[in-house]
């Protein structure tokens, strides 16, 4: 499961940055920074790296 998360994160970053660059051209930098998937990947990677879990209330809500 850990490998799948890494592959998803890498593909999300690539599609949200390089994919936007291919479509938008020169002004892609400002558009790629505003993508929520790019910003969500960083805390997700931090949680995975530090082996942190979600807060109890969030885990209960998701289950």
Helical segment count: 4
Principal-axis shape: elongated
- What Rg do the Cα atoms give? 14 Å
User: Helix coverage percent of residues?
Assistant: over 70%
Backbone structural class:
mainly alpha
> How confident overall, as mean pLDDT?
79
Our measurement of the CA-to-CA distance between the termini, rounded to an integer number of angstroms, reads 18 Å
Q: Number of DSSP strands?
A: 0
Question: Order of SSEs, N→C?
Answer: HHHH
How would you characterize the largest beta sheet? none
Beta-strand proportion: under 5%
pLDDT < 50 runs, ≥5 residues:
none
Describe what you observe in this structure.
The chain is 79% helix and 0% strand. It has helices at residues 2-24, 28-33, 36-49, 56-62. α1 (2-24) runs antiparallel to α3 (36-49). The chain is elongated and about 45 Å long.
Helices and strands in order:
Blueprint: H1 2-24, H2 28-33, H3 36-49, H4 56-62
Helix pairs in contact: 1-3
List keywords for this structure.
single chain; 63 residues; mainly alpha; 4 helices; 79% helix
Summarize the structure.
The protein is mainly alpha-helical and 63 residues long. 79% of the residues lie in helices and 0% in strands.
